[in-house]
Amino acid sequence: MRIGITGATGFIGRHLTALARESGEVIAYTRGHAALQLADRTLRLPGDAPHALPETRLDALVHLAGEPLAGLWTRAKRGRIWRSRVDFTESLVAHLGTWKMENRPRVLVCASGAGFYGDSGGVVVDEAAPQGAGFLAELCGRWEAAAQGAEAAGMRVVTLRTGMVLGPDGGAYPLLRRVFRLGLGGRLGCGAQWMSWIHIRDAARMILRAVEDESWRGPLNVCAPGAVTNAQFTRALAAAVRRPAFFHAPAFGLRLLLRGMADEMLLGGQRAAPAKALEAGFRFDFPRVDDAMADLEGRRTCGS
Q1: Fewest C-beta in 10 Å: which of 10, 11, 83, 90?
Q2: How far apart (Å, rounded) are the C-alpha atoms in residues 274 and 291?
């Protein structure tokens, strides 16, 4: 297959590119030069219209690009997040509709997030669960709606409701590892909020399966079957790095420091279940968080 990837130089994009190249050809769409070392071919995005991907024949397009969520959610930051996801995807889908049919990808796999469900408390949410409340829920809902517009152009669409992706070279895990190794780790707030997570290897495998398996369409929870509370996650990480985790970040302090981001990304959460993947027979290399962290610390490999 010829797979185009936006965001190929990002954390998930790098791992997906490496995996996809084992069985096909990867076309990276980028504004910079870093992707030249990763993909079989790099096509430069126009600076004034980055959604206008240079046309070439593609079997699939995986759209992962977007403004990072990390950082203080000022009005300007929220605007960049929204434009880079909702507005960009709307423009991208419209642009793909102008491609010749023989070049147009048969499937669009578009990033989204488990934040679609809002703060679901202890309720297990699969892909059939309704949209929740909050900025992230509204963002993901509009983002997915923009991607679904590609169906009108004859493309199968999969939207990736991704949880926290754990990997050694990107995402939150490297920072968390440093903090916990210094003995400064601890739970956030009461620690009862649920966290959906997935090992980067399983995330890349699931995304590639979404590209290749024509029976997969619509929303897909990209998360391991073993969601944990923040307190459980804290204990697992402390055990993985072999340090105590006595510290506690109080909820009021996080809200004072991070404002709206605290409630939506740290103090709230989702107990998401990968129902579609499990029903399709997808086998996780790392279904348990302690096994995933042990692997990232170099003490265990999948299947051991």
Answers
A1: 83
A2: 18
Give percent above pLDDT 70 in the chain. Answer: 96
Strand partners, 271: 124
Whether the CB-CB separation of 198 and 224 falls below 8 Å is answered with: yes
Strand pairing partners for 125? 272
Q: Supply the pLDDT for residue 303.
A: 47
> Distance (Å, rounded) from C-alpha 48 to C-alpha 76?
20
Domain-located, residue 204 = yes
The CA-CA-CA angle for residues 160, 154, 62, to 5°, reads 30
200: confidence class by pLDDT, cuts 50, 70, 90 = very high
* Domain, as residue range, for 66: 2-164+197-223+273-278
Residue 51 lies in a domain: yes
Tally of domains in the chain? 1
Q: Is 64 left (phi over 0), alpha (psi -120 to 50) or beta?
A: alpha
Q: Where are the beta strands (DSSP E) in 87-226?
A: 107-111, 124-125, 156-162, 164-166, 186-188, 194-195, 197-199, 218-222
> What does the alpha-carbon distance between residue 178 and residue 160 come to, in Å, rounded to a whole number?
29
Band of residue 135 on the pLDDT scale cut at 50, 70, 90: very high
Alpha carbons 62 and 150: distance in angstroms, whole number: 13
Query: Where do runs of H (alpha helix) occur along 158-228?
Result: 173-181, 200-212
pTM given for the model? 0.93
Question: Which domain CATH number covers 94?
Answer: 3.40.50.720
Q: What is the pLDDT of residue 300?
A: 55
